[in-house]
Amino acid sequence: MILSLFSRKAKANEAITIALYDAIVAAARQPYFYSDLDVPDSPLGRYEMLSLHVYLFVRRIKGRSPALKAIGQEVTDEFFRDVDHSLRELGIGDSGVPKRMKKLARMFYGRIESYDKALEANDHPALVAALARNIRPDSDSWSGAAALADYVGRAVRLLESQPDEVLASGKVIFPDAGALETPRN
């Protein structure tokens, strides 16, 4: 009987994690990023957008309740399981996956550091530079970086407006990437 209680709780937590992760993936796959902002529509470009959205979610719940902290860890774990699965679907063999996963994990945590530093300092030019450096390292002057930084700012504000209880129930909303907002001054 006790095991069935743990099993139900684990299934509820899994459902919450999957619902949150699905919403994060949907936000990262908004066509506007790839069509209008010229984010590369490639495995690496999609990884960059997904890691950005996972970061935004984890940033929002950082320092909150232990339940949200656990959810944040579960979402991050789901992200890395998804990346592992994607690498295997791309045909990378069992022996090559761990090496690539370590590299992608280092990339993810490096991005968190640079995005966090820019957001904490409210430094829009630094955020633009970090996004450009990470998402379009092949371009010296990626015009989509400023618009993406504006989207990140909108996402941070929208995520902050969502109550902890709503997030803990498995619901999260990201902005419509193509929606226009008053330009920055």
From TrEMBL:
This is Cytochrome b pre-mRNA-processing protein 3. It comes from the Bacteria. Belongs to the UPF0174 family. Belongs to the CBP3 family. InterPro entries: Ubiq_cyt_c_chap (IPR021150), Ubiqinol_cyt_c_chaperone_CPB3 (IPR007129), Ubq_cyt-c_CBP3-rel (IPR014569). Residues 36-174 form the Ubiquinol-cytochrome c chaperone domain.
